[in-house]
Amino acid sequence: METLNLASDPQCAMTRVVTLARPQLHNAMNTQMWRELWETLRDLAYRDDVRCLVFTGAGERAFSAGGDLKERNDKSDEAWALQHQLIEDVLLAIREFPWPTIAAVQGIAFGGGFELALMCDFVIADTGARFALPESRLGILPGGGGLQNLAR
């Protein structure tokens, strides 16, 4: 099951739109989605037909609710460490992407979803967008640079 959709923007052929596609779970980001993001970023980074990357969420309620915590509950410490490294790699790849990146946010952008948006060059949000780093309520820290990037 794919967790991402990749399309060309009909208004600009050199823009690619990456849609986080788990709307039934507010686009919560599981390991598969992080892997697909990594592959997408790697594949698009140096193509001649790409000049901009837009991230958005499927549905109207969420850009992304952040990490899929139910998936995380079943992970060993080793599996969690490997997933965390993948998340860091993806977020840094977004920050270092050679062309402009835009987070088009509607609905909620919480946790890792907010951190993904913060790694983009631009964040464009609708009037109903809500942003939060709720990890502290769970006794964890935002692990994708959210605290540092929010201050920047």
Describe this structure in words.
With 152 residues, this protein is of the alpha/beta class. Helices cover 34% and strands 26% of the residues. The protein has helices at residues 31-44, 69-73, 77-95, 112-119, 146-151; strands spanning 4-9, 12-20, 52-57, 62-64, 101-105, 108-110, 122-125, 130-132. Strands 1-2-3-5-7 form a 5-stranded mixed beta sheet. A 3-stranded parallel beta sheet has the order 4-6-8. Strand 2 (12-20), helix 1 and strand 3 (52-57) form a beta-alpha-beta unit. Helix 1 runs parallel beside helix 3 (77-95). The radius of gyration is 15 Å and the shape is globular. The model has no long low-confidence stretch (mean pLDDT 89).
Q: What kind of oligomer do you see?
A: single chain
Q: How many β-strand runs? A: 8
The proportion of residues forming helix, as a percent range, comes to 25-40%
As a percent range, the share of strand residues is: 25-35%
Give short descriptive properties of this protein.
single chain, 152 residues, alpha/beta, five-stranded mixed β-sheet, three-stranded parallel β-sheet, 5 helices
